[in-house]
């Protein structure tokens, strides 16, 4: 009798589950990571969720996982994702260890960028296997996050004997492991926050100012520009700097300051801080001459610029 053809090996439901997975903290990150592990053949079985939003998110991304208390999550799962806010993580780990919820041999994973495995020390003493796997990605709390993990870097810290396991889990989630030393985690996380979180603030402020200028679709206007600027910055660093600060156009900067102060004063402090930082970097990299930088700093301090018609001693043709 003819046998039916085998099912495609890429389908998760046709592969045996290897680890039961639990999530403590159904914020934006945990359910997405667990859903990615499910695609690799693991089986999410339990999640803790308090708010209606987190319960709804758990139901959408982890439909087969029971919603239970954190201690019960640990009782049911071999691999537990601790995805709570950074400030809550130390007390959570200490409490779980103190109450005996942690089981020997249990993989305990947090997704905090700030911490390495040291924060899991109480659980390690109870026999848990500690891993720090931080996805370098911004999350929406929806299914699109699972797709975005493909090719995403993870900041990974793990004991030497668990490096292979940590790497395997990241790869199974579609990511790429980048090893971060324990002592370097706060600096690494500061870099990520500086680039991603502050970028969101800058873009939001730019759209706010464009709306004040009468632009009805600032996102449409900024999309191509910011995409090109980001690509150029990633390729060339400071060499990608353009605009009035990089050119030393103190007169233009003076006008920017005046317009922002009048129309959107809440944006002005950020503009001044970034313009000063940009001027410093342009000066250090030889893009600005010292006298140009001095005129820019005067403009940013509110003083009238010296020099030519545009405050730089140059004409338009010199740019």
TrEMBL record:
Residues 152-277 form the DUF2520 domain. Residues 8-135 form the Putative oxidoreductase/dehydrogenase Rossmann-like domain. Transmembrane segments: none annotated. Residues 298-319 are annotated as: Disordered. Residues 298-307 have a biased composition (Low complexity). It holds the Pfam family Rossmann-like. Gene3D superfamilies: NAD(P)-binding Rossmann-like Domain (3.40.50.720), ProC-like, C-terminal domain (1.10.1040.20). This is DUF2520 domain-containing protein. It comes from Streptomyces bohaiensis.
